[in-house]
Amino acid sequence: MKPSLLVLVACSLIATTLCAAEPAPRFRAGAATSVITPPLGRPIVGNFIAPLSTNVHDELHARCLVLDDGKTKLALAVLDLLGTEVGMCAETRGLIEKQLGIPASNVLISAVHTHSASSTGGKAPAPAEPEYENYRAFVVQRIVDGVRCAVNRLRPAQLACVTAEVPEHVFNRRWFLKPGTMPPNPFGGIDQVKMNPPPGSPNLVKPAGPTDPTVTILALREPNGRPIAVYSTYALHYVGGVPKGDISADYFGEYCRQFERLLDARDLDPPFVAMMANGASGDVTSTDRREPQPPMEPYAKMRRVAETIARRVHAVLAKAEYQDHVALAARFRERTIARPMPTAERIAWAKERLTKPGPRPDQVDLSWSYAHRITDMATREAQVSVPLQVLRIGPACIGTMPGEPFCEIGLEFRQRAAMQPAVLVEWAHGGFGYIPTAKHFDWGGYETWLGSCAFEPHGSEKLLDTLLEMVAEVRDVK
Ligand SMILES: [Zn+2]
User: Fold this and answer.
1) How far does the centroid of ligand 1 lie from the alpha carbon of residue 301, in Å?
2) Distance between Cα 241 and ligand 1 center (Å)
3) How wide is the angle at C-alpha 142 spanned by C-alphas 136 and 147, nearest 5°?
4) Rounded to the nearest whole angstrom, what is the distance from the C-alpha of residue 68 to the centroid of ligand 1?
5) Ligand 1: centre distance to CA 82 (Å)
6) Which of 256, 259, 251, 261 is nearest to 275 (CA)?
7) With helix as H, strand as E and coil as C, how does 241-272 read?
8) How far is the CA of 153 from the centre of ligand 1 (A)?
9) Residue 45 Cα, ligand 1 centroid: separation in angstroms?
10) How many angstroms separate the alpha carbon of residue 130 from the centre of ligand 1?
11) pTM higher than 0.90 for the full model?
12) How much distance in Å is there from the Cα of 113 to the middle of ligand 1?
């Protein structure tokens, strides 16, 4: 064999060996937003009176993030809505699987819980609106569009997982009051705990639960440092302070705008996407009730809250370390939980109440509202299938619950999850109402009333146990 041929054979052998060793798959990320603002003239949901929308203060979005480690793809969508609905989320996840090849179990859909948006729920409020279903179908399509655009923008990425502390805007909204000062509940009984008592009231004793000041942040950037997206969570119900009839994404949307401004990332192509999902905040408000609160201009408070969070996240991220190799995994499971069902005595109370006149359309009468809710609950199934999900994103994990878990459930998830950072995202894949812990049912109060809460008193413990099993499974994925 001539020397040149020897060299050729040796070279081709080396080349074959190099080809045999597959290059390590590159972690990629892409993000996009879709506008989901409803047409004006629909009810704004979230309070006992639902005024019709007359103005768009800021557009509502589905903010979408897609991650790909070469083996597994995840999609996360945060919706500027009051809540999500089980059927709508299942349908959307199914479409994403079918059209985009991301398994439905790997798609996380949650709502921020703004109280200035219209419902996508299948049930139209009276008088029934014939086109109500159209908004639901529109939102489904827009989420799929947003995820599709995020897939289109997948590019090599790095991840940083950090936390920031923002204790000054979270307050537990459930209070013990001085003996003899508790007003009766709509059923004529006396609770031990009151939701949102007047700020500065001399009757306040102490809050009935903790708060969670931690913002959990998953930041994605290109290897050259150009930002792609920031997925953030904070456990604050909403802020409000919105004029009647306004559509707004509350502080969640304002945080995204302020963060994009701070990062000087408003004109990037592909665009940078900031996201703020809601943590476990069923009992958490931005109002400090220990002192009387001065009135504020519309939107002033949510700007202040958003600015504090955006500044603190920005400061933490400036020092964050990013990693190139990110393992992804997902688990999705349904757990059957008993619903709280009305007793015969309570049903009789509701029927009796409904024989008497109701309030005027612009007035709230809780006994009337709850008599309706209880009558409705008596016709529903006694058990419900509850969707639960865990996503692993590098060292971090996200657990989800449908509806509004109390803050202490989120704190317990973070403490017991064997991955850090860990965060519980609420209003994911549907909603069944508030999710208090067992002791809160003994204390009573708005969130625990029949018609407000989702599950039987020990339901949250069962959901948490299942989520932690799922965390243990994704933790070991290489
Ligand atoms: Zn709420």
Assistant:
1) 17
2) 14
3) 130
4) 34
5) 7
6) 256
7) CCCCCEECCHHHHHHHHHHHHHCCCCCCCCCC
8) 34
9) 10
10) 26
11) yes
12) 7
Q: What's the 173 CA to ligand 1 centre distance in angstroms? A: 12
Q: Calculate how far, in angstroms, residue 115's C-alpha sits from the geometric centre of ligand 1.
A: 7
Task: Tell me how far the alpha carbon of residue 26 lies from the centroid of ligand 1, in angstroms.
Answer: 40
List, for residues 367-385, the tens digit of each pLDDT value: 888 888 888 888 888 899 9
CA of 284 to the centre of ligand 1 (A): 10
Interval 19-64: pLDDT, tens: 456 666 799 999 999 999 999 988 888 777 788 999 999 999 999 9
- 237: CA distance to ligand 1 center in Å? 6
**Residues whose CB falls within 8 Å of the CB of residue 305, separated by 6 or more in sequence, listed in order:** 169, 236, 239, 251, 254, 255, 286
The domain ranges of the chain are 28-173+208-327+388-439, 342-377
Q: How high is the pLDDT of residue 16?
A: 46
User: From ligand 1's centre to the CA of 307, what distance in Å?
Assistant: 22
Q: pLDDT tens for residues 249-305?
A: 999 999 999 999 999 998 999 999 999 999 999 999 999 999 999 999 999 999 999
For 389, the token pair is 């999900």
Q: Measure 328 CA to ligand 1 centroid, in angstroms.
A: 32
In a 10 Å sphere around its CB, with 0-12 CB exposed, 13-18 middle and 19+ buried, how is residue 387 labelled? buried
pLDDT band at 78 (very low <50, low <70, confident <90, very high): very high
Distance from the alpha carbon of residue 283 to the mean position of ligand 1, in angstroms: 9
Q: How far is the CA of 381 from the centre of ligand 1 (A)?
A: 24
Here the tokens at position 267 are 């004109």
- For residue 64, the number of C-alpha atoms closer than 13 Å in the C-beta half-sphere is 30
* Residue tagged 């119900």 (tokens): 237
105 CA → ligand 1 middle, Å: 27
Ligand 1 centroid to residue 431 C-alpha, Å: 11
